[in-house]
Specification:
With 124 residues, the protein is of the alpha/beta class. Helix content is 49%, strand content 19%.
Length: 124
């Protein structure tokens, strides 16, 4: 069974956590994934290892690590891959794969143009 682990930075802002939880619900509903779990690197829980364990406990045989990060900083290039590598050693029967960060997706420019247009419309 495929699970998605939505990994975000984490924030002390309650609104930020609510937005991530809502995104996970939308992904689960629209993507048809049986498990979509949130995890955070800092300031929030569950942590990435805890999120992975939650997916495993729900029967995941494959976990897609969905990086909710804009660019390829140290978290994307080093921190998260190290956490996933450690989890893979603890769970050798589970397939792990990581998505690239959001910012390199070819549709990001269109998304940003939509955001600019919405901001301009709101301001006028």
């Amino acid at each position: 069974m495929k699970a998605v682990l939505l990994v975000s930075h984490g924030s002390r802002s309650a609104a930020s956590k609510r937005e991530n939880l809502h995104l996970a619900e939308v992904l689960k509903a629209r993507g048809g994934f049986p498990v979509v779990q949130c995890a955070f690197l800092e300031a929030e829980s569950p942590s990435v290892p805890e999120g992975i364990e939650a997916c495993v406990k729900q029967g995941a045989s494959e976990i897609v690590i969905l990086l909710n990060f804009l660019n390829s900083g140290n978290h994307v290039l080093k921190d998260i891959p190290a956490l996933v590598e450690a989890a893979a050693k603890n769970h050798p029967g589970i397939k792990f794969c990581l998505t690239p960060p959001v910012g390199i997706h070819p549709g990001i420019a269109d998304l940003f143009l939509d955001l600019i247009a919405a901001a301009e419309k709101k301001a006028s």
